[in-house]
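Can't paste images in this forum, so I'm doing it all in text. The chain is below; anyone willing to post the predicted structure tokens underneath?
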Amino acid sequence: MLTLTYEYKAKPTKEQIHVIEHTLDVCRKVWNFALRERKDWLNSRSCQVNACSLTSEYIVPANEPYPNYNTQAKSLTLAKVQYPELKTVNAQVLQQVLRKLETAFIDMKRKGMGFPRFKNRYRMRYDCLSSVG
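Text version of the structure:
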């Protein structure tokens, strides 16, 4: 059986480009915040209590649960009240960003892949556009 593939080049208007850039910017901020939250949680548990530096380590309370997808999605909902910029992007898009971060951590553990990276504006553009296809 023969499978045909078609590629179409999108030609967005300036308004559409602005909306896309804004969406990618908010997604990048959500990714970086969620990754920082997980990284701080892991770093706070990486050394013994009597050997950690109080000035260089971020201290997370001992009863704080691991920030997985479910807890971060719930905090994302609560953050929309405090940060109205999050309301400008569809909720499912932001949830998908958190799902991709969860998948990155699962791949890191199971497949031996590297630790997820923080995204600058160019890396976020490349990752989002490459996952669309």
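The mean pLDDT is 84. The radius of gyration is 18 Å.
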